[in-house]
Amino acid sequence: MAEQTLKEKTAKGLLWGSINGGIQQILNIAFGIFLARLLSPGDYGLIGMLGIFMGIATVLQDSGFSTALINRKEINHDDYNSVFWFSFSVGIICYVILFFCAPLIADFFGHPELTNLSRVLFLWFLIGSTSIAHSAMLTKKLMVKERTKIEVCSLVVSGFVGVLLAYKGFAYWGIAIQTVTHSLVGSILRWYYVPWKPTFTFALRPLKEMYSFGVKILFTSIFAQINANIFSVLLGRFYKEDQVGYYTQGNKWMTMGYTFIWSMIGNVSLPVLSEVALDVERQRQVFRKMLRFVSFISFPAMLGLALVAPELIVIGVSDKWLPCVPVMQLLCIWGAVTPISNLYTHVLLSHGKSDIYLYSTIILGLVQLIVVISMLSLGIYYMVLAFVVVNVLWIFVWHYFVNRYIKISILDVAKDILPYCFIALIVLCITYFVTKSISNIYMLFIAKILLAMFVYGIFMHLADSVIFKESFTFLVKRK
């Protein structure tokens, strides 16, 4: 593939990824505000308790084969077809098991209402299992425009359903039906936009060829889901559902910001890095440019989100959710560095090193679990703080492994990342002190955002940032 063609595909992917992420988060914010005002922390807490079961079931039905498809150099109908039937079969098996285990889940958390709630909510991953192969094709072929349409339509339809049910007094059922509707609409649209369709044949050969790579991704993803949902489980078991709700709400707003950033590059980075995996020098250059782009966006966006968190929560979802602000601010630090960690893992996956990805994630999960449990008696704030510290420091572990394959020094990475981090911190400090005297919460919220954006732009211009100029030039040309 010619250099210009790869650049064009990457640029197109980044553009549509930005559009996709932006529209999604606007919709998420809009529907999230309505739902949070209509529902209680306890309603969110009940849904949050089931997150780990949904996450693991989703991982099992995928079993790492979608990532294996994306990473595969040569791919045909049998490859997609085998993954489709495997995913659908595992989805059915997982749903049946969890359906009958629902009373046990309810007993564990001490909430009988979780029995029926979980049986409905778990339909989410069963429906989703019918379009995993289609989703892999969308990513493999960099069909980011189509993914945008799918995600936006799914969010709009499911959002209206959730808000309507919450308004009618269905409480946590509104969130559950919203989640299932999102999966249903998304699956239908993936079938519509993807030209490939499954056939009633099943070849075991493609699964065998992808098994070694896929099974490691499977176990990695299981541990990643455990890591991501450990707070909901511990809080649900040892604290009241309100505490789970506050954590879930804070994490939700952080995730909106993080998802917007990662949606710009996440669907592009693995295919592009895999494309240049045989040329170490070229891959190193691509990786470093992706690091600079992510840092340029991630640090000001996520740390800025932490800065405006008090005003955002009060204005958006009312002061009844104020206890979630400290949790949200801590998680924003994690959200700022997570895209960097993800890029490291994509380099490893582009070289087929799913075993390293697996073992490192398992060890990370065990360390997190030990540290978080040790903080259990101190409360949720210190648990989240410990979680964030461990994840930030783990970047050095990812770097150690990636350095083996693309020979990149920690100093080069620091040159790519730290300038954006330091400038973002300086800008936010300036913004905080300049706006400190503003008493009106609405004016304060707007002033913080506008001033931070303006000052950050000035700093980027004075620093003669290449990424800043390239991004600005690209957007102007697109217009």
Automatic annotation (TrEMBL):
The keyword Transmembrane helix applies. Keywords: Cell membrane, Membrane, Transmembrane, Transmembrane helix. GO terms for cellular component: plasma membrane. It holds the Pfam family Polysacc_synt_3. It comes from the Bacteria. The chain crosses the membrane at residues 21-40, 46-71, 83-105, 117-138, 150-167, 173-193, 213-239, 259-278, 290-315, 356-374, 380-401, 417-435, 441-459. Belongs to the polysaccharide synthase family. This is Lipopolysaccharide biosynthesis protein. It comes from Parabacteroides acidifaciens. The lineage of its organism: Bacteria, Pseudomonadati, Bacteroidota, Bacteroidia, Bacteroidales.
